[in-house]
Design brief:
about 140 residues; homodimer
């Protein structure tokens, strides 16, 4: 059954390994309306990735382990405003998805306390897609 | 003494918190000679960030914790060839720095088994700089 999460179905985990399919993923959501260079965007994304990963691992170490065994799938998507970023964060909290909002201290390129990115998951792909399924790839 | 690592000097940890200076950092090294789009570069960097972070935490959880308390400093730099990437990896191993080489499975944009990025640290900034100090910011 597609809606089962990994931790509820050990057989599914074995299936994943055999087929090379992904059941878990992490999504990095980046603001494109800010004037960030590539290096800055990469650093903000890595902050989001690490912080969301730690949150996810704390909540459910077993699913986190499955994610890494599958190859730790990550997808980068974009939003065009602060409002859009915060709206996605809110939806993640409503769906109880592990999420990390990155607020830049503004040491370089942008003003202090600017929210720049979100990390979501790793979590079951089918759950993450409820929130991020319509966002455009970066 | 500036060359002391965090775990050898608890007082330095307190100093860091008060001053807001960084003593630890992680460096993401990205190949610019590959035809990767921004999203692909971000995902490769996040792979490097997570894998190097896990390696660093396994070796020295206390220093890893200091890094995160300081704000988890990350820097993105570029190289122009595979040879340069592998040379940096080798130097990291010679200096016993935690390092993760990311080899892409080539599902999108580039051929399978292409080394794309390196994650180095978190480790003491002064040690990381021995290897990455001359590399150009991305």
């Amino acid at each position: 059954m597609k809606t089962r999460t990994i931790r509820q179905n050990q057989a599914a985990v074995r299936g994943v390994r055999l087929t090379g399919n992904f059941t878990m993923k992490q999504v990095l959501v980046i603001r494109k309306d800010l004037k960030m260079g590539i290096g800055k965007m990469i650093v903000q994304s890595c902050h989001a990735s690490i912080e969301a990963s730690e949150e996810s691992k704390k909540r459910d170490p077993r699913s986190w382990g499955v994610w890494r065994e599958e190859g730790a799938k990550k997808v980068a998507v974009k939003v065009q405003s602060l409002e859009e970023l915060l709206d996605i964060e809110k939806k993640c909290r409503n769906y109880h998805l592990p999420v990390a909002l990155i607020v830049d201290r503004g040491l370089t390129q942008i003003p202090p306390n600017t929210p720049t990115a979100l990390g979501i998951g790793p979590a079951a792909e089918i759950d993450v897609d409820k929130v991020t399924g319509r966002l455009k790839l970066l």
